[in-house]
Structure formats: structure tokens, C-alpha cells
Amino acid sequence: MVDHDSPVTEDELHAFIDGELPADRRTAVEAWLATHAEDAARVAAWRLQMEMLRARYGGVASEPVPVRLALDRLPRRGHMWIGAAVAATIAAFLIGGLTGWLARGASAAAPSDYDIFAMDALEAHRLYVVEVRHPVEVPGTESAHLVQWLSKRVGYQLRAPDLDRIGLKLVGGRLLPGPTGAAAFFMYENAAGERFTIYSARANAPDTALRYHAGEQVGAFYWFDNDQAFAVSGMADRDKLHKVAAAAYEQIDTRSPGARRGS
Amino acid sequence: MGVVGFRHDVEAAIPALRRYARALTRETEAADDLVQDTLVRALRFEHLFNGGDVRSWLYTILTNLNRNRLRSLARRPTLTPIEDDDAPDMSGPEAGGRDIERALAALVEEQRAALLLVVLEGLTYREVAEIQGVPIGTVMSRLARARAQIRAYLDGERPTLRRVK
Predict the structure, then answer these.
(1) B89 to chain A, minimum CA–CA distance in Å?
(2) Which of A35, B108, B138, B159 could bridge to B134 as Cys pair (CB 3.0-4.6 Å)?
């Protein structure tokens, strides 16, 4: 199938120096470079860049690792986001308004903030999963619009995770009140008609690991991250719910929409 | 994977993470802050790690944290570090190091990350595509743009070398 004489593309030149080119195409590229001076100069320039980069930074990996990076000595929470966290807390304060703030208690770090959030999430879950005709305001078929709208209202970029892999389809979503302002609500459904929901709002409390909050016959896994809180609610089958929460978390956190932007 | 295996793998990746972070930020302190935050998060969400390659997972976290860091810096422009522009470059390896550093600084974040993951960290296009959450074609175009821009920078725009008396 491989044509040894076909012109070499720029992609192939990159693949060539990055060791990604199939062996049967490598000789073709070498032959091409022998007769195409401009491409040969490009490849030489890229190789020089590689050498410069490795010369400049390669040695970092052999430096002794600073004590503060020892796994046993790590702080519970990263420090770098404190400035941003303060800014977001002030923003949430302004958005939420003084009344809401005082009603919640002045201590942003109070553990009860987590429970309040989880209870709000479960309340929304209970209320809407039983809805047959109007479970959502915007259907999952318009997910791009839904996500854009809810992101604008909650004030940060949301993502409706794609949970196809675990058999869940996005039913849709709606806007709800949250602890300090707007909250976004997404509903998913499997072939058996079981529903799971994701509830997200601005939060004023320190980050948490994934935690479980049990309600009556329902439960929620929730986490606070960088002043955004997320809860995944469903029936109180903890293992099953954990699977859904883990799949949702994976997409919400480490593959946030920013990473998908083209360059 | 057991807890011990996971921690061990995380620990083994620290030198490479520091190298990547240093090139990504070009600042020693900021780079180690980034690595520290990556490790904190990795251990905190260990139970969500689904058994793939720990190293790729850590690169993913670090890449995303750095994007957040740049955004929060952009929101607070007065706190952006002042660029080290005092000593004029002469020649030799020092000058080369500073040139490549400046060329890197001029890149768009996604292009810089793609280039460093391939060239410095030796990851495959496929791994980088997964880390950045984009198709392989996008990784290749980021790589191509990064290389073209660095080449143009090194070829033509070396004001510091021209200033040499």
C-alpha cells in the first residue's frame, strides 16, 4: 500500500524526526531530503531546536528533588490558587448577595457548606428525576446550547460529560438556584430508565476529595475544586454511583473544555 | 494497581514532571509549585485513577493546572512576573539556552505544551493527543506551528545577538 515515491508531506517530516514514521516510509523521506534542500534545512533547524531544548532543560530531571515535593510532606491543598480562590470567593459573595451569604454563615470553611451543597443537589435530584414530561428545560439534543447557557449563568465553563461509555445518555439540563447563586443541573438516563444527575455551582469552601453523602434512598458523590462544586446524584447504590461519578469527574476535571480548544 | 505501586509510580515521575514544568513556565519556583499542586491532586484523586499510564495522567493534570495558572495570571496583569531582560546575550551555550527560552515564551500555550511533551518528554503523538484532549491531527498542527515559529525566531529575530558590540 505504501508508495515509496509519493511526495513527502510536512507531517511526515515531523513524524520522521519524532520517530513516528513507519519504517517503510523512512527511507523514502531520507531520499527526499537528499534532493530537497529546503526541506532538509527545515529538518536540520527542527533538530537544532530539539538539541537546544534538551540542552537547556534536560538537566532538570537529574537535579535533586526539593524536599517540599516529597510525597509524605505534601500540603493537603495546593497553594498556587489561593489568590484565585479569594477572587472567586469575593465574586461569589457579590453574586450571591449579602443575605444569602449571611444565611449560610460567615465561615467559608465550615464543613456544613459541603452538606448544604450535597443536600441542595439531592433535593434537585429528587424533585426532577420523577418528572416524566418536563424533567429538563433544554433537551440533550441541544447540548452545545445547553452547556453554553448554563456556563454563562453559573459564571464558569461547564461541561456535560459524555457518559455513553457507561450507558448513560444526556436527557438535558436546567438552571436552578444554588447555595450562592445559579446552579447548573444535568440529567442522564440509561436504557433501564435509571436517572443520574450532575449539579454544579460556585462554592466558597476549600477543595475536597470525592465524598459521599447519603440521603433517603438516594446518594451523592460530590467534590469541591477551585471554587466550583460538583455533585453526582443517583439511587443509593454506592458502587454504581461511584462509577458514574468517577466517569463524570474524569471529564469535568482533567479534560476541561479549555483543553479541547484548537490552537 | 495497589496503593504502593501507584505512589511509587508517582514518585518516579517527579524528575520528569519538574523538567516539563520548568520548560513550560521558564521559572523555577513556579514550576515546582505546579509540580507540587499536581502531586497533591494526584494523591487526592488517586481513587479515580483508572489504571492507565500514571505518567500520562500526571502530565495531563500538570498541563491543565498550568492553563488555569496562566488564566489567573491573565486576570491579574499587575502580578505578571517582569521578564528577565537585563543581561544581553553573548554567544556560546548560555546564549543558546536563553534564545530557546525566549522562543518558547513566544509560543501559544497549547503549542508549547505539545512541543515539550513530544521533544523533551518523548511522548508519542497519541499520548499527547490524549493529554491535550484533541485529535492527533491537532497535535501535529500545534507541533508544526511551534517549530515554524521557533525557527523564525532563531533565524531572524535575535535582537540580543545583533546588539553585541
Answers:
(1) 15
(2) B138
Q: How far is CA B52 from the centre of its chain?
A: 22
Q: Which domain holds residue B113?
A: 87-165
B143 close contact with A: CB closer than 8 A:
yes
Residues A45-96 pLDDT 10s: 999 999 999 999 999 999 999 999 999 888 765 544 444 444 444 444 444 4
| Pairing of β A211-214 and β A218-225 | antiparallel
B108 with A76: Cβ contact below 8 A? no
Give the pLDDT confidence of A111-137 residue by residue, as tens digits. 357 877 888 898 889 888 877 777 888
Residue type at B37?
D
What does the pLDDT read at residue A48? 95
Rounded to 5°, the CA angle B121-B122-B124 comes to 125
pTM: 0.56
The string of DSSP letters for A102-167 reads: HHT-S-TT-THHHHHHHHHHHHHHHHHHT-SS-S-SEEGGGHHHHHHHHHHHHTS-------GGGT
Distance between CA atoms of residues B12 and A132, nearest Å = 52
If pLDDT is split at 50, 70 and 90, which confidence band does A174 have? very high
Same domain assignment for residues B43 and B91: no
Rounded CA gap, A77 and A251, in Å? 21
Same domain flag for B77 and B92 = no
Task: Please tell me the distance from the alpha carbon of residue A185 to that of residue A176, in angstroms, as a whole number.
Answer: 7
Integer Cα distance of A61 and B18 in angstroms: 7
Top-tier CATH class for A82-260: alpha beta
Contact B24, B31 (CB under 8 A): yes
State the average pLDDT for chain B: 82
Q: Among residues 166-205 of chain A, which lie with CB inside 8 Å of chain B?
A: none
Rg, chain B, Cα only? 17
